[in-house]
Amino acid sequence: MKTASSQISPTDRPEHLMGRLKNLVRDYVDHVKLFSRNTRLYLIGSFLMGINFTVFNLFLNLYLKEFGFAEGDIGLVLSSRAVGMAVMAIPAAILLSRVRLKPILLVTSFLFAVFSMFITTFHELTLLMAFSLLSGMAFCFYRVGAAPFYMRNSTPKERTYVFSLSFGMVLLSGMAGSIGSGKLVTVIADYTGDIVLGYQYTIYLGIAIGLISLVPFFMIKSAKPSREENKILFSWQQLKSRGKFYFKVSFSNFLVGLGAGLIIPFLNLYFSDRFNLSPDLIGLYYFVVQFSMLAGSLSGPVLAKRWGLVRTVVITQLASIPFMLALSYTYFLPLAFVAFVLRGGLMNLGVPIVTNLGMELAEKREQGLVNALLMVAWTSAWMVSSAVGGSLIEKFGYTFTMNITVFLYVVSSFTFYIFFRKTEVKGDRETGWTIVRENGS
Predict the structure, then answer these.
(1) Is 276 buried (19+), middle (13-18) or exposed (0-12) by CB count in 10 A?
(2) What are the distances in angstroms from CA 202 to CA 81, 120, 279?
(3) Residue 434 — φ and ψ, nearest 5°?
(4) pTM recorded for the entire structure
């Protein structure tokens, strides 16, 4: 007869599992130590800008609703920023392939803060849409410049970790912005007797913290783009020769953006409307979901080493679907909270991996363009769906709208797998998966 201890595999023993965990942490730290000074400075700047972005996104639509704006109007304001990002993405990529990143980054980061302040100060719908459009155009330069900058300032050995930690840094800033800002809204509202001032002053504080990002961005030593990068064009001839690759790398991102725009900007309203949650509790919920997304993004390189970039994206996105459905149908707050947290962590785990894959498959001279196309695909879809999403929620409610999002996420996962399943070859345990660039991609 076997004893309980003899039935436990040596690899399942706690000390062995702890040893594996220590090895994973050590491996992660060793890769982070390889990050260049420029990369570290950009990550710090991203953290500070992320606080501004999180606080702004978390409370803007709640703030506007207090002024009497309907969900449809709020959707128009949100989609205007996406329009600005989509319109400016390709021109920004072309400009950044010809000039130094640093001065453009400093100017546009400052303008993003200014336009965000205007959105929080003025209350006429036309002005809100105009300033939202301009803030999107300014923020676009930071987003478009990031991936080529990381490619230029990293080596293949640590690159997946750079992209993962870049996304993780934004999420970490989201945690910092979410946990304190919800309580601050309540404190200011209690002191002034006006919830609107609570939202407004909290958003102003987030903008001020975002402006501090100018310090690490100023310390970056950016070289001029290489001659290869200076060749970036978006000509008809290039579209004919590389159009298939551009479509494949953009289409799945478009579907995800289309689904996300319908519901993600309104999830704070979802918790406010369906469960009557206060701003500080909503802020706490967003803190927890940001932590879940951070854990997911940091685990991305580990999973990608085992499953490959493509399979990691597909598996984790499909795993998030049951939680999205639970969020859609439940009126039981604990279940909604758990579904909200797990959906966020799983669905967003693949975001930096998709960007990393696009950069690896792109030729060096088109990396900025491919990053811009990824952003255009996502933001143009978001632009349309966030405008429509508010109206759909007004007419049909959250459940119907979330189910459309689920359908789009599923289609996106399958198309991504079909397009890119042959772009990786599995090696040994040390090398993991190797990218194979197809001719014409």
Answers:
(1) exposed
(2) 20, 10, 11
(3) -115, 135
(4) 0.70
CB atoms within 10 A of CB 353: 24
Give the DSSP H or E segment for 435.
strand 433-435
Q: Token digits for 346?
A: 């799983």
Separation CA 345–CA 340 (nearest Å): 9
Angstrom distances, CA of residue 236 to CA of 74, 233, 315, 358: 38, 9, 36, 21
The CA distance from 392 to 324, in Å, is 17
Tell me the per-residue pLDDT of 261-298, one tens digit each, with 9 for 90 and over: 899 888 988 998 899 988 878 888 888 888 888 888 77
Q: Which residues pair with 434 in a beta bridge?
A: 425
Residue 322's pLDDT is what? 96
Q: What are the chain's domains?
A: 37-220+239-427 (1.20.1250.20)
- Which of the four pLDDT bands, split at 50, 70 and 90, describes residue 440? very low
Write down how long the chain is. 441
Q: Which residues contact 264 (CB under 8 A, 6 or more apart)?
A: none
CB 84 within 8 A of CB 140: yes
Query: Which position has the token pair 């490959």?
Result: 308
Residue 75 contacts by C-beta under 8 Å, 6 or more apart in sequence? Answer: 265, 266, 386, 387, 388, 389, 390, 391
Render pLDDT for 188-214 as a digit per residue (tens, 0 to 9). 988 888 888 988 999 999 999 999 999
